[in-house]
Amino acid sequence: MLKKELRIILLSLIVSFILTVAKFAGYFLTHSVAILSDALESIINVVAGAFASYSIYLTSKPKDENHPYGHGKVEFFSIGFEGAMIFIAGCLILVKAMQYFFLPPALHSVDQGIWIIAATTVSNLFLGLYLVRSGKRLPSITITGNGQHIMTDVYSSAGLIVALLIIHLTGLTWLDPLVSVIMGVLILRQGYLLMRRSISALMDETDMKVVDKVITILSAHRRKNWIDVHNMRVQQYGNNYHIDCHITLPYYLELSEAHDEMKAVEVLVNKEFSDSEVEFFIHTDPCIPACCHYCQKDDCPVRSFPFSGTITWTRENVLPNRKHF
Questions:
Q1: Does domain 208-318 have CATH number 3.30.70.1350?
Q2: What are residue 285's DSSP bridge partners?
Q3: What is the CA radius of gyration of the chain?
Q4: Membrane topology type, per the record (predicted)?
């Protein structure tokens, strides 16, 4: 899988380099600051592709003594680095656009510039769709993120083509820096979103979608011995997850029986997360008389209180560090 991921990201790198050269050729031909903005954003595709290649290589390395959870978090560094580069490019685009508002250059060969940008846009469209689909199929958040960035480039380039057509047909050259400002703002937003995602992952912000998925899996295959689940925490390392939680079991189970229950949880969740590896660290809590009210073990030999009803597992009672009273 590593070789396939590297081939995909290297293809992205080569194509992005060729398209960047073509866009700069379009800028030198037309002197359009809007085309320059598009070319500057494409530089980020090249830099991000190079960084993504290294992150994919590093992610594939096995766990070791210094990295007991593996090297998957480097992918979030890759996303953050790409976001920072995009943000810087957006700032440069805005500065250049402001200069052109006051000192507008004469535009040349706008029709030829339109054809160049149109060709690069179509090429980027196919590349972006290929990367997004490949990233979801493998799965790889690095490839998916790279594809999503290129698709953003496609949308901005499509808007640029429309603007260049208007300029070419009407002669309203002041639209050139205006379009560049709009593109700069959109690029800044994209950079911010990528950096936000990177920081959230590096700080182990809980992904509620993953929590909900784990809760759904455990609820659907709930065993009578699993009295409650609480203090659940989820950490993501690339495409893999580390989950620790507390599970309340009947206090009289033997150690081997408790181990079998924990192993069943791990096997069950990993079966449903077929594209990822889920590592569990489970702390077992012994039941207490207050648990009898919602314990479903109808053949319990030590029940102190009658069964009142099942408690549905939700975020509200699975995430806090307390039994379900």
A1: yes
A2: 248
A3: 27
A4: Multi-pass membrane protein
Instruction: For residue 159, list its beta bridge partners.
Output: none
Which has the closest alpha carbon to 36: 119, 188, 157, 128?
157
- Give per-residue pLDDT as tens, 238-295: 678 899 999 999 999 999 999 999 999 999 999 998 777 899 999 999 999 999 999 9
Q: 2-202 and 208-318: same fold?
A: no
CA distance 126 to 103: 37
Residue 72 has pLDDT above 80, yes or no: no
What residues does each domain of the chain span? 2-202, 208-318
pLDDT at 60 over 80: no
Of the candidates 324, 153, 299, the residue with the CA atom closest to the CA atom of residue 229 = 324
Cβ atoms of 38 and 116 closer than 8 Å: no
Tell me if the domain spanning 2-202 has CATH number 2.40.10.340: no
The DSSP line for 184-239 is HHHHHHHHHHHHHHHHHHHTT---HHHHHHHHHHHHHT--TT--EEEEEEEEEETT
Cβ neighbours of residue 109 closer than 8 Å, sequence gap 6 or more: 29, 30
Which tokens in the block code for residue 113? 């510039």
Residue 185: band (very low, low, confident or very high) from pLDDT cuts 50, 70, 90: confident
39, 160 Cβ separation under 8 angstroms:
no
0.70 exceeded by the pTM? no
- Does pLDDT of 90 surpass 60? yes
Strand order in the sheet with 240-249: 228-237, 240-249, 278-286
Answer yes or no: is pLDDT of 86 > 80: no
For residue 229, pLDDT over 90 is answered with yes
Of all helices (H) and strands (E), which one includes residue 62?
none
The 3-state DSSP class for residue 296 equals: coil
